[in-house]
Amino acid sequence: MDNDAEVLAIARTTVQAAMEVLAGIRPIHQLARRLDPRCLALLEHRATLIRRELARSTSPTLARLHRNSVVRSVRSCEVAPGVYEACAVVIDDVRARAVAIRLERGKQAWRVTELVVG
Are 35 and 115 in contact (CB under 8 A)? Predict the structure, then answer.
């Protein structure tokens, strides 16, 4: 598999998994090997804030936030040797959102060094 196809596949599965973490249906530790520690901590913090707000709210819209997320499209480009940036469009029960991701090739595998969920 060439780098472009590999990056697209990794970006798609990582974004899908991140959305499932935010929805509360996937444990965050499953992303520990793919995300660098800072990205993992930020995603965990956002998921915690979402769970806290859900516990306080009676909003039916908030209860559906991040539910049934589907990655509709992914695009990527190489910005430096061994460094790719990708964006994804994700549709869930409430809205469409953009996700940006940066992948860097390490000695053994690709690692996500930036993950921004819009």
Answer: yes
3-state DSSP helix/strand/coil % of the chain, to nearest 5: 40, 35, 25
What is the mean pLDDT, run by run of 10 residues, along the chain of 118 residues? 89 97 94 96 95 85 81 97 97 93 94 96
Class of domain 3-117: alpha beta
Number of separate helices (H) and strands (E) present in the chain = 3, 4
CA dist., res. 101 & res. 20, Å (int): 16
pLDDT of the residue at 65 = 76
First to last CA, the chain: 30
For residue 105, what are the contacts with CB-CB under 8 A and spacing of at least 6? 3, 82, 83, 111
pTM: 0.92
Domain ranges in the chain?
3-117
